[in-house]
Amino acid sequence: MTDGLLFPARGRDPARATGNDASSPDGKERLVGEFGLSGGNFVWRSGRAEITLSMAGESFSVVYTSPGRLLGPRQIVYEAKHKDPTFAAWDVMARVVLATRDEDEGLRAGRSAAQWIRAHRPIPPAEGATSRRNL
Fold first, then answer.
1. Cα–chain center distance at 105
2. Three-class SS string for 68-90?
3. Under a CB-based contact definition with an 8 Å cutoff, are residues 83 and 70 in contact?
4. C-alpha to C-alpha distance for 81 and 52, rounded to whole angstroms
5. Most buried one in 56, 81, 110, 115, CB count within 10 A?
């Protein structure tokens, strides 16, 4: 299930469950959350929780939303901006751990967020390279 994402859930694939996973009491692998791209942003969803990582200029924004009482409109539970991409990936990891109480899922989401950041961050010119500003 893609839930409006541009690519399906990543991480553990329940179709390839080996039955030997000790992380669940019944011995089957389980998929805790889904993550993908939505409108150019990295989005992680599980149940009612949604964590979005977006890039605005040189900074990264992490937003954790959840429906209000009685499944009302989404409310912002947490919002932060980071200039350092490492802190943004760590923040995504921490929010996922808080939302799921599952450190393994937090690590998977944090790694995927770091890959997304590497793919979308502008690459600075190498030292000594000439650019229009240096000319």
1. 10
2. CHHHCCEEEEEEEEECCHHHHHH
3. no
4. 12
5. 110
